Amino acid sequence: MTDKNQWLEWAVRLQSLAQNGLAYSKDVFDIQRFEEIRQIAAEMLVSPSGLPLEKVEELFCNESGYQTPKIDTRAAIFKDGRILLVQESDGRWALPGGWCDVDQSVMDNTIKEVKEEAGLDVRAEKVIAILDKAKNNPARSAHRVTKIFILCKSLGGAFVPNAETVASDYFGLDELPVLSEGKTTAQQIALCFEAEADEHWQTRFD
Questions:
Q1: Whose CA is closest to 124, among 115, 111, 113, 114?
Q2: Phi, psi angle pair for 147, to nearest 5°
Q3: Cα–Cα distance between 182 and 50 in angstroms, integer?
């Protein structure tokens, strides 16, 4: 039996081909065919995801133009040899960060997300890693995601509970809480510790 991850890979590929076809096709019949392929891709995700078709279409078929990976920025901030994590409403923890907004650079988005989720003003200092989520995080996504980890220095501020996070704290590598692994894994945090300790760090990427 084919597992749901294989179904997801097929559906994502079909959606990508359909979206690219819709972006460049001029022939009305080709456009109809690509719209049908996109619909089939959405229907393929209904069973594995457990979501209703309308929700899958909203999340999966709402873009136009040539499809590229989404960018997720994550900040690594250290204090006394411990790294800052923020806690989400489900009780799990992650490095502060999120989707890169269309009007933000990677650096600007990283700074913005830290302010929103952790209440800190930071300076982005160097790129730790550029990683493919599908290769490094267990939770799968209907979109290809590139995760960019940035070493940052805190300039001050204080945490305030907000719509995205309910707490923040610093943790040692050997005392990590339950992580939101679709966003941050223990291996990625360990990579951040390595980068913090190495002044000649070279960006990792895959």
A1: 111
A2: -105, 125
A3: 18
With a CB cutoff of 8 Å and minimum separation 6, the contacts of 54 are: none
Pairing mode of beta strands 93-94, 145-157: unpaired
CA–CA separation, 35 vs 31, rounded Å? Answer: 6
Per-residue confidence band for 102, with pLDDT thresholds at 50, 70 and 90: confident
CB-CB neighbours of 50 under 10 Å: 9
**pTM of the complete model:** 0.78
CB 206 within 8 A of CB 132: yes
- CB-side exposure of 119: number of CA atoms within 13 Å? 14
Greatest pairwise CA separation for the chain in angstroms: 63
pLDDT of the residue at 1: 47
Q: Which two tokens stand for residue 106?
A: 């990677």
Distance in angstroms (rounded) separating the CA atoms of residues 69 and 100: 11
Structure tokens at 37: 């392929």
Give, in order, the Cα–Cα distances in Å from 104 to each of 67, 108, 122. 19, 6, 16
Q: What is the CA 178 to chain-centroid distance, rounded?
A: 18
pLDDT tens for 5-23 read 677 778 878 888 888 888 8
Distance separating alpha carbons of residues 182 and 147, to the nearest angstrom = 11
